[in-house]
Write a structure and sequence with these properties.
Number of domains: 2
Organism: Ruminiclostridium papyrosolvens DSM 2782
GO molecular function: acetyl-CoA carboxylase activity
Pathway: Lipid metabolism; fatty acid biosynthesis
Largest sheet: 4 strands, antiparallel
InterPro entries: AcCoA_biotinCC (IPR001249), Biotin_BS (IPR001882), Biotin_Carboxyl_Carrier/Decarb (IPR050709), Biotin_lipoyl (IPR000089), Single_hybrid_motif (IPR011053)
Order of helices and strands: HEEHHEEEEEEEE
CATH topology of the largest domain: OB fold (Dihydrolipoamide Acetyltransferase, E2P)
Keywords: Biotin, Fatty acid biosynthesis, Fatty acid metabolism, Lipid biosynthesis, Lipid metabolism
Low-confidence stretches: 43-63
Distance between the termini: 64 Å
CATH class of the largest domain: Mainly Beta
Strand content: 25-35%
Mean pLDDT: 79
CATH superfamily of the largest domain: RNA polymerase II/Efflux pump adaptor protein, barrel-sandwich hybrid domain
């Protein structure tokens, strides 16, 4: 099988609903796998309903940030976890005192679980992300005093 034939197979897989194609030809074997993202459609009514619910939950207290609080920010893009597993206790909760170097959460990035630690002693006043949320680089994940 030459490179042009392989390119053609990749085009076919890309443009179809096929996720995996494997071809054995003599001593040669080629396997092409495509990881596809699932797309969920949302109707206009659902979006409006969710927006209304969200706006009811927002109040003035949640919009103001105490200027004396400090933030622990996500050092990478990934999935935020509050505990090592669903069966384990959360690393920290609101009101907990933390020590410098204490693990406060895990961020999974590229199938690696990265422990995020407190950079200094303090008290957690807000957990800014939910368990399982995707967090962005620099996004506040905790606020502490």
């Amino acid at each position: 099988m030459n490179i042009e034939q392989i390119k053609e197979l990749v085009k076919i897989v890309n443009s179809s609903n096929v996720n995996i194609i494997e071809i054995n030809e003599g001593d040669s074997r080629i396997r092409i796998e495509m990881e596809r993202q699932k797309i969920q459609s949302v109707s206009k009514n659902e979006v409006q309903l969710n927006t209304a619910i969200h706006s009811d939950e927002v109040n003035a207290d949640s919009l103001s940030v105490n200027p004396s609080t400090k933030e622990i920010k996500a050092p990478m893009v990934g999935i935020f976890y509050t505990a090592p597993s669903s069966k384990d206790k959360e690393f920290v909760a609101t009101g907990d005192k933390v020590k410098k170097g204490q693990v406060v959460c895990i961020i999974e990035a590229m199938k690696l679980f990265n422990e995020i630690v407190a950079e200094e002693d303090g008290e957690i006043v807000e957990i800014c992300a939910q368990n399982g949320d995707v967090v962005e680089f620099g996004q506040p994940i905790f606020r502490y005093l």
